User: Which sequence fits this backbone?
């Protein structure tokens, strides 16, 4: 299993996670890992700096695309066409630039809260309006999606796997979603950034593999950003598999492509080519950390519950029984010095919830639960 860096070393980092709060706070909010970079990625980046390789990306360099495609084939049995992939700075850009081309101004886009908070802003940035179809307890509400599309929504912005719950959507539900969307001549933009962090024993299904309909109307947003902790290096990909959606790639301004980070392309290529064992070890560590959280909650804080995630390192905590109101993260931070992500950021369904980042040392989880438990009479 992978081991997190010591706290004193982590506090030397200058990213958002380590500079937002003072040193007496345990930062367990934003989705950054506390693990060291995989050595092949670190070596490749150091080598690039050493040779002064800090210029613009070559928009015709498909080495990182090929690396992802090879990984996707081995991991999920999906071989996306490299010719139908295009780089971008991050998954948010893939989402926004896709939506710009798929909706008319003001048109509705279905999202499924509680969901990754920027989805609300990305739809608005693209000129659309948010149509909320809340998740059921452990599945998409496909009947409600059907009604929303019948009422004029243009398509669906899908989180696959789902953030913050860590749900891995079943292939059956995804296939049914594709049939519903096809009946309404809609589209699906599928954010699959957490897919490489699918836990052992679970099967992730790329949206573009579930049916001919999905391939016809779908766009996937993929990245190594979460898998290898590369958010600051800026690299993601559009993936399409039909002539209908290929126009989207052809219509992208060159600036969307060349704003991709060169270090991001280098790190993504190295990650998906040489760091698969590291990724597997990381998933094992994350699964162990969920076990730690389960044990600590049962022993010290049984009124707080968490549904076991099937992907990612994010735990969705139901803290409503504590009586701390709609935003329990506020009390956890103010009185316990534990920084969690506010549940209501994910939509109104997040009232009473908070999200905890478990990509850390197990001792950090033990300490966090201990601090929160100490606030409960």
Assistant:
């Amino acid at each position: 299993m992978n081991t997190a860096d010591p706290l004193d070393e982590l506090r030397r980092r200058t990213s958002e996670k380590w500079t937002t709060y003072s040193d007496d706070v345990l930062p367990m909010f934003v989705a950054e890992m506390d693990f060291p970079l995989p050595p092949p990625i670190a070596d490749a980046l150091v080598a690039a700096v050493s040779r002064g390789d800090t210029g613009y990306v070559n928009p015709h360099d498909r080495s990182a695309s090929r690396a992802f495609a090879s990984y996707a084939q081995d991991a999920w049995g999906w071989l996306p066409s490299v010719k139908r992939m295009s780089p971008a700075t991050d998954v948010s850009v893939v989402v926004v630039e896709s939506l710009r081309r798929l909706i008319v101004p003001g048109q509705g886009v279905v999202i499924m809260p509680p969901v990754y908070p920027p989805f609300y802003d990305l739809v608005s940035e693209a000129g659309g309006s948010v149509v909320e179809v809340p998740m059921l307890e452990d599945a998409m509400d496909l009947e409600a999606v059907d009604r929303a599309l019948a009422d004029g929504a243009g398509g669906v912005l899908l989180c696959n796997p789902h953030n913050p719950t860590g749900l891995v959507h079943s292939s059956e539900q995804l296939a049914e979603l594709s049939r519903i969307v096809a009946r309404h001549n809609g589209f699906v933009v599928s954010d699959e950034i957490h897919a490489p962090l699918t836990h052992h024993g679970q099967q992730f299904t790329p949206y573009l593999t579930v049916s001919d309909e999905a391939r016809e109307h779908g766009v996937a947003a993929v990245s190594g950003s979460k898998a290898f902790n590369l958010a600051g290096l800026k690299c993601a990909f559009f993936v399409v598999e039909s002539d209908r959606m290929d126009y989207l790639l052809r219509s992208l301004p060159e600036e969307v492509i060349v704003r991709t980070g060169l270090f991001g392309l280098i790190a993504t290529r190295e990650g998906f080519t040489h760091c698969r064992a590291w990724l597997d070890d990381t998933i094992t560590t994350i699964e162990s950390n969920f076990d730690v959280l389960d044990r600590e909650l049962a022993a010290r804080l049984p009124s707080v519950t968490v549904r076991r995630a099937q992907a990612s390192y994010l735990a969705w905590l139901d803290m409503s029984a504590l009586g701390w109101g709609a935003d329990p993260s506020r009390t956890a931070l103010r009185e316990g010095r534990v920084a969690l992500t506010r549940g209501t950021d994910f939509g109104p369904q997040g009232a009473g919830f908070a999200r905890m980042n478990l990509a850390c040392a197990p001792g950090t989880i033990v300490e966090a639960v201990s601090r929160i438990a100490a606030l409960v009479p």
Summary: Residues 7-30+276-373 form a domain with the Aspartate Aminotransferase, domain 1 fold (CATH 3.90.1150.10). The chain has 16 helices and 13 strands.
